[in-house]
């Protein structure tokens, strides 16, 4: 009887240990299109096809396991997250194959990636842009491969977070009213094996990767690619970049003597700043690893009447005809952005939103959340264009006007308030 009691106690201890264990793994896959396809981001390119590769595009994946719960965080060298049909296909595959139920899948917002909105239907891409349609399966396979590689390499891990204020590297491109909101937080999350070998560094910063000329029709990760290469070469680990609320934030190269001119130099300079805080960062095994996560979609009215033929003709002239019917389908039931919020170890918040949020949304949320550190991921788990602040809409200008921000005024504030409520609810502070 005593032997049986000892055996049961041992089994229970093993089960408790499994629930408390923290694991991390990283993976990477090349997702550069192999055929000429329309490029994302600049309207003046219309439907011009790509003509090669300046530097490859990658999906960089981090998989974290908290006891029995798994989370994937994926940074892509793309203008946006995958379209809804691709997102759901990816999520189903990683759940079925790897038991990963939750994910943040985001684009860096490079304007030198492929268009992701076309669909296999007449007038929406079929027949004219079949190479783009073929690419979506390649992209999905690549993202899944990166996630599954990370899942395969899960090991007991340590983690740590740090941030610094990076003055002079970004600027507010929208407002003329002082002081201009700028999110200067450079944030990192580092993961090591239990014996201290780096697994991955997650980097979160806020600035448009739009330094490469629009008329260069070659794929490029822009400054983000150079940043990741700089950090990877020094720390010998995977590097995942997650863009912040950069709807109104551009890079600031500064004067020539700073040596930040051009995407390669600027990215390398940011990379060196990442190394400064990531290299000496002390990591530790979370004493009580835990993951709480919530996700939902909202429905807002549109400021644009997508049923108006004249309006559609203007959009088709500004971009290209086959692209716009797909936006009409996306917004048929209103603008439906997605919010994903996770709390790691009861102290770190991850907030992902499916659009280009203005920086003040993230700045204010960080001030109000009262967590150890909050990472804000834009262009995440979908894409629903710009989300300006109410005062930015009142001022007007690019990013705040209905042409590129069809969502109802105040939508961004409502989503941020919801994120705050979720954070406090998950922290049991409400």
SSE arrangement:
Elements: H1 2-20, E1 22-30, E2 58-66, E3 69-76, H2 84-98, E4 102-107, H3 130-152, E5 155-165, E6 170-172, E7 185-193, E8 198-205, H4 222-235, E9 238-243, E10 249-251, H5 262-278, E11 291-297, H6 309-318, H7 324-330, E12 338-344, E13 348-353, E14 356-357, H8 359-369, E15 373-377, E16 386-387, H9 390-395, H10 411-426
Parallel strand pairs: 3-4, 8-9, 13-15, 14-16
Antiparallel strand pairs: 1-2, 1-5, 2-3, 5-7, 6-10, 7-8, 11-12, 12-13
Helix pairs in contact: 2-3, 4-5, 8-10
Q: Record the strand order, biggest sheet.
A: 4-3-2-1-5-7-8-9
Number of strands: 16
Shape: globular
Helix amount, in percent? 25-40%
SS-derived structural category: alpha/beta
Ends distance: 48 Å
Average pLDDT number: 95
The major sheet is characterized as: 8 strands, mixed
Percentage of residues in DSSP E strands:
15-25%
Element-by-element helix/strand order? HEEEHEHEEEEHEEHEHHEEEHEEHH
Gyration radius, in Å: 22 Å
Note poorly predicted spans.
6-16
Give me the number of helical elements. Answer: 10
Any overview of this molecule?
- This protein is an alpha/beta fold and 430 residues long.
- It has a domain at 291-426.
- It contains ten helices and 16 strands.
- An eight-stranded mixed sheet has the order 4-3-2-1-5-7-8-9. It has a four-stranded mixed sheet with strand order 11-12-13-15, covered by helices on one side. It has a two-stranded antiparallel sheet with strand order 6-10.
- Helix 2 (84-98) links the parallel strand 3 and strand 4.
- Helix 2 runs parallel beside helix 3 (130-152).
């Amino acid at each position: 009887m005593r032997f049986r009691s000892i055996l049961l106690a041992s089994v229970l201890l093993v089960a408790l240990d499994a629930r408390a264990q923290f694991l991390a793994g990283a993976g990477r896959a090349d997702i550069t299109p192999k055929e000429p396809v329309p490029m994302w981001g600049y309207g003046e390119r219309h439907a011009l096809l790509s003509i090669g590769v300046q530097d490859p595009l990658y999906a960089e994946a981090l998989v974290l396991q908290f006891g029995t719960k798994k989370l994937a965080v994926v940074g892509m060298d793309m203008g946006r997250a995958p379209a809804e049909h691709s997102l759901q296909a990816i999520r189903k595959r990683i759940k079925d194959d790897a038991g990963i139920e939750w994910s943040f899948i985001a684009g860096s917002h490079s304007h030198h990636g492929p268009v992701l909105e076309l669909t296999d239907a007449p007038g929406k891409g079929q027949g004219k842009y079949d190479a783009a349609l073929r690419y979506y399966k390649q992209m999905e396979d690549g993202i899944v491969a990166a996630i599954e590689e990370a899942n395969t390499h899960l090991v007991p891990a340590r983690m740590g977070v740090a941030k610094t204020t990076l003055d002079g590297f970004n600027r507010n491109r929208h407002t003329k009213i002082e002081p201009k909101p700028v999110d200067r937080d450079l944030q990192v999350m580092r993961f090591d094996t239990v014996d201290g070998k780096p697994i991955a560094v997650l980097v979160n910063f806020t600035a448009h990767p739009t330094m490469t000329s629009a008329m260069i029709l070659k794929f490029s990760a822009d400054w983000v690619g150079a940043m990741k290469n700089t950090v990877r070469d020094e720390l010998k680990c995977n590097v995942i970049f997650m863009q912040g609320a950069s709807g109104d934030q551009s890079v600031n190269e500064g004067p020539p003597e700073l040596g930040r001119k051009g995407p390669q130099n600027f990215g390398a300079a940011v990379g060196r700043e990442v190394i400064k805080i990531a290299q000496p960062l002390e990591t530790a095994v979370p004493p009580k690893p835990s993951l709480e996560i919530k996700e939902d979609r909202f429905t807002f009215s549109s400021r644009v009447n997508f049923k108006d033929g004249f309006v559609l003709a203007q959009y088709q002239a500004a971009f290209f005809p086959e692209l716009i019917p797909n936006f009409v389908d996306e917004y048929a039931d209103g603008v439906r952005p997605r919010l994903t919020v996770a709390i790691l170890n009861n102290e770190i918040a991850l907030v992902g939103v499916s659009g280009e949020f203005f920086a003040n949304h993230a700045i204010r949320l960080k001030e109000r959340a009262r967590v150890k550190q909050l990472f804000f991921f834009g262009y995440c788990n979908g894409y629903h264009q710009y989300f300006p602040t109410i005062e930015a809409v009142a001022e007007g200008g690019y990013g705040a006007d209905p042409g590129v921000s069809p969502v109802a005024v105040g939508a961004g504030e409502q989503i941020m308030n919801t994120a705050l409520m979720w954070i406090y609810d998950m922290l049991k502070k409400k």
